[in-house]
Amino acid sequence: MSATTITTADEPVQFYDLDEHAHPEGHSTMLGFWIYLMSDCLIFAILFACFGVLGGNYAAGPAPKDLFDLNLIALNTAMLLFSSITYGFAVLQMQQGNVRGTQIWLAVTGLFGLGFLGIELYEFHHLIEIGATPQRSAFLSSFFTLVGTHGLHVTFGVIWLVTLMVQLGKHGLIAANKRRVMCLSMFWHFLDVIWIGVFTIVYLMGVLR
Amino acid sequence: MSADPHHHAADGHHEIEMPHASMRDYVIGFVLSVILTAIPFWLVMERPFSNGATAAIIMIFAAVQIVVHMVFFLHMTPKAEDGWSLTSLVFTVIVVVIMLAGSLWVMHHLNTNMMPQVHDTSQLP
After folding, report:
1. What pLDDT is attached to residue B121?
2. Residue A103 and residue A94: Cα distance in Å, rounded?
3. Looking at CA atoms only, how far is residue B76 from chain A in angstroms?
4. Can you give the pLDDT at residue B80?
5. Which residues of chain B does A173 touch, with a Cβ-Cβ cutoff of 8 Å?
6. CB–CB of B107/A53 below 8 Å?
7. B84 interaction partners in chain A (CB closer than 8 Å)
8. Tell me, what's the pLDDT at B4?
9. Are both B71 and B40 inside the same structural domain?
10. For A13, which of A99, A179, B2, B96 is 20 to 30 Å away at the CA?
11. What total number of domains does chain B contain?
């Protein structure tokens, strides 16, 4: 673990930095997590492309116009938007070193997330009940895949939120927990960014078609 | 191996640099998002414009809102992580644009050229 192997008698000529330099724990976590989110973004991009290609193939089945209730989608969008700002409040509380406040705002965020999931599940249930199942047409297959994948991400986000609240309760605002709060912050806001694409392209453009 | 001479430097640098969030950022981001969400929904529900114009407007609003989220909620700056965050974002956006535009383009041409009923067989040589 030293650079002695390439030292000559005269002088230590080093072309490579063989000594390990300081890597504080978690110093690259934020960038790594960001790159993960970018790869997640590619998954969603593929699903968006599928929807873009297949979204008009109704197979003589129901079209978006017949299926989507924009009031419900507006409510759903509001849920995610509110959860975004409440997560922001959690981060602000964390910056002030307030464990309780962080946990409370995380809990509020989680409730908005659950509200979003509840509305989405209600919508899916309603669609399947009236026969608009994923098997019905290519449009519905790609719709359920895209929106379902987003919903699945939100589900995991809520699970992560609960885990984080437990971790905060156990260890307080240690460096590792702060890092986790910031990572989940990126994840949560990223899901909101994806949702902008979903409500615009799937719902609003769908109803316009 | 762990007891290296740089350990003190690591300790001094222990507080990992995190984007500093402020109440102002979140409130501005939230208000802009609400406006940028409400207008497209209103346009599609009330239809004051033609379908084509409405589609163009809501796409622009979505693009602007994505930027707003990136700046005010995800704290994206050109300097974050020495610029690597932005670099990876730009790379991803390029890949996504090529992939989306390419898929839609190719599949559109396939649809228009390969549909059996489109061609009039009597016109073929």
Report:
1. 58
2. 9
3. 10
4. 81
5. none
6. yes
7. 31
8. 40
9. yes
10. B2
11. 2
Intervals of chain A under pLDDT 70 = 1-14, 18
64-103 in A: which are within 8 Å (CB) of B?
70, 73-74, 77-78, 81, 84-85, 88-89, 91-92, 95
| pLDDT at residue B10 in the model | 39
d(CA A181, CA B40): 32
Claim to verify: residue B33 and residue B67 sit in the same structural domain:
yes
Q: Report the chain B residue with the minimal C-alpha distance to residue A27.
A: B16
Can you tell me the mean pLDDT for B6-30?
A: 67
Residues 6+ positions from B119 with CB-CB distance below 8 Å: none
Whether residue B7 lies within 8 A of chain A, CB to CB, comes out as yes
Shared domain for B61 and B83, answered yes or no, is no
Q: Which residue has 């938007």 as its token pair?
A: A81
What CATH number belongs to A30-52+62-208?
1.20.120.80
Six-digit token string for B86: 């932005």
Q: Are A95 and A140 in contact, with CB atoms under 8 Å apart?
A: no
Mean pLDDT across B55-66: 95
Are both B49 and B84 inside the same structural domain? no
Point out the residue among A46, A70, A204 whose CB comes nearest to the CB of B58.
A204
Whether B49 and B86 share a structural domain? no
